[in-house]
């Protein structure tokens, strides 16, 4: 089902993503992030995402969240992300951060196959990406993340 028809039927996708974030400050190291999204487009333009995130190679931390919003509205929580329909075959999730945007591009033929890609883009005036640690909320600075895996499955 193309996204333009999302108001008339439900569509579900599983996104399995992994990337390495090269932390440069406060302590240089690579941080592996593995994330799984179940994205559901429901009647009347609602989108739900169920997210499971695993971070760290040695000491793994797992978090799970489920959020729902109208397409184009902010999902809430720490992500500040929103899903938008770009055209009948492309959906994008954009999370705006102070130093950059992080986008997940979901493309599909509708019912049989889909692809997913990731994009981090620095905002003007920034030379490194800035994030926060999950526990202490202290700032972390990193360079361009490297995608390890990005797969999509129509459910």
Automatic annotation (TrEMBL):
The protein's name: Uncharacterized protein
């Amino acid at each position: 089902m193309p996204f333009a028809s999302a108001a008339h039927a439900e569509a579900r996708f599983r996104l399995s993503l992994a990337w390495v974030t090269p932390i440069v400050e406060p302590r240089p190291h690579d941080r592996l992030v593995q994330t799984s999204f179940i994205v559901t487009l429901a009647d009347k333009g609602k989108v739900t995402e169920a997210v499971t995130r695993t971070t760290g190679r040695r000491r793994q931390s797992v978090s799970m969240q489920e959020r729902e919003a109208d397409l184009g509205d902010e999902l809430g929580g720490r992500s500040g992300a929103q899903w938008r329909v770009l055209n009948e075959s492309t959906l994008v999730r954009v999370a705006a951060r102070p130093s950059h945007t992080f986008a997940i591009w979901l493309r599909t033929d509708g019912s049989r196959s889909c692809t997913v890609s990731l994009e981090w883009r620095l905002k003007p005036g920034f030379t490194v990406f800035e994030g926060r640690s999950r526990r202490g909320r202290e700032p972390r600075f990193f360079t361009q993340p490297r995608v390890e895996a990005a797969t999509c499955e129509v459910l």
